[in-house]
Amino acid sequence: MAESASSATSMLKDELDIVIPTIRNLDFLEMWRPFFQPYHLIIVQDGDPSKTIKVPEGFDYELYNRNDINRILGPRANCISFKDSACRCFGYMVSKKKYIFTIDDDCFVASDPSGKPINALGQHIKNLLCPSTPFFFNTLYDPYRDGADFVRGYPFSLREGVPTAVSHGLWLNIPDYDAPTQLVKPLERNTRFVDAVLTIPKGTLFPMCGMNLAFDRDLIGAAMYFGLMGDGQPIGRYDDMWAGWCIKVICDHLGLGVKTGLPYIYHSKASNPFVNLRKEYKGIFWQEDIIPFFQQVVLPKDCTSVQKCYIELAKQVKDKLSKVDPYFDKLADAMVTWIEAWDDLNPAGAPAKLPNGKA
Predict the structure, then answer these.
(1) Cα separation values, 98 from 35, 95, 264, Å
(2) Rounded-to-integer distance, Cα 88 and Cα 103, Å
(3) Which residues get glycosylated (predicted)?
(4) Fewer CB within 10 A of the end CB, N or C, for the chain?
(5) The architecture CATH gives domain 16-346
(6) 27 φ, ψ to 5°?
(7) Under a CB-based contact definition with an 8 Å cutoff, are residues 24 and 102 in contact?
(8) In this predicted structure, what is the pLDDT of residue 350?
(9) Helix and strand counts by DSSP (H, E) for the chain
């Protein structure tokens, strides 16, 4: 069983990195071993850099802590969040691979309705290697899946689809709820397995969850910035959603696709709703301004790269959202710093080179 799972999952093993943010020993990897062992792991240790993080034997990995981030990025290190899972985006920056899969350390292998373990990484790879259909909705969902096709009335001129930049997976057991919903539904669990993948239509935003996510780093990596969250910031738990809103308007502008649905993982741990409420409090109010902002964003035609789109987006964040709170002025500056750091470590046409032999 383990051997066949490993063989099936080793697709793209030289082109994909797995990024994991953590503050604890990574014992959870034992359950994922049949699926993850062929791949290179980038572990971003949050919190106290003097703490030793233990990784099970047999995994190929590199581990970065805050001291490494400060050393590699220097004065630009302040764009990477501290004491927040948003630190994971540093792993995206230092990766040298075309694809990234990121997962939280409280996520385990789920089972499908037949009881078979779900190869989440394998499904993400399928999603990323198949086109998306953001310009016209197919009522059989993903038309490229075995047993499906384009329905009658679907324009033939659009059936080629567009490249898929992002694959957004879902979760069984603990739902990804905000704090108020957690408080009123403390015992609710997601047991419903929906066997579907669909492309999110152009012009439609979505709340991206970073605990089970894959993307084409070459196509959209420079926009996968999880913002300024956690220690020293007035907000938390909006890191992945901020990145999701940014990447969606950029994907729409550049003609790229975002898929959501399969694969499922098993989310094992409910975070404390009272702690979450403190982190989310301002975001709950701010999102009523943030979402209309992203719904109305227009990127100029000369924004022909992800970096140009992101710099323009940062400019508009500063112009429009800094009126909501000075935090957004700081966030806009960090967005620019992120792109500068990304371009430093990822020069056009060359693999990233890190100082002091870290690679």
Answers:
(1) 19, 8, 23
(2) 10
(3) 152
(4) N
(5) Alpha-Beta Complex (3.90)
(6) -65, -25
(7) no
(8) 53
(9) 11, 9
**271 pLDDT higher than 70:** yes
Each residue of 290-349: pLDDT tens digit? 999 999 999 999 999 999 999 999 999 999 999 999 999 999 999 999 999 999 999 986
List, for residues 61-72, the tens digit of each pLDDT value: 999 999 999 999
Upper half-sphere CA count for residue 120 (Cβ side, 13 Å)? 31
DSSP per-residue string spanning 173-235 = ES----HHHHHH-TT--B------EEEPPTT------TTEEEEEHHHHGGG----S-BTTSS-
Q: Are the C-beta atoms of residues 222 and 129 closer than 8 Å to each other?
A: no
- CA 167 – CA 75 distance, rounded (Å): 32
Question: Given a cut of 90, is residue 355 above it in pLDDT?
Answer: no
Q: Are the CB atoms for 31 and 9 separated by under 8 Å?
A: no
Give the global pTM. 0.94
pLDDT category of residue 147 using cuts at 50, 70 and 90: very high
In the chain, helix, strand, coil percent, each to 5?
A: 40, 15, 40
| C-alpha–C-alpha distance, residues 64 and 28, integer Å | 19
* Domains of the chain by residue range: 16-346
Quote the crossing angle between the two packed helices 2-9 and 29-36, to the nearest 10°.
60
Report which DSSP code applies to 124: H
Average pLDDT across the chain, whole number: 94
Q: What is the pLDDT of residues 217-258, one digit of tens each?
A: 999 999 999 999 999 999 999 999 999 999 999 999 999 999
Taking alpha carbons only, the member of 141, 121, 122, 123 closest to residue 132 is: 141
Tracing tokens 């078979």 back to the chain, one arrives at: 116
The total of other beta-carbon atoms located within 10 Å of residue 18's CB is 26
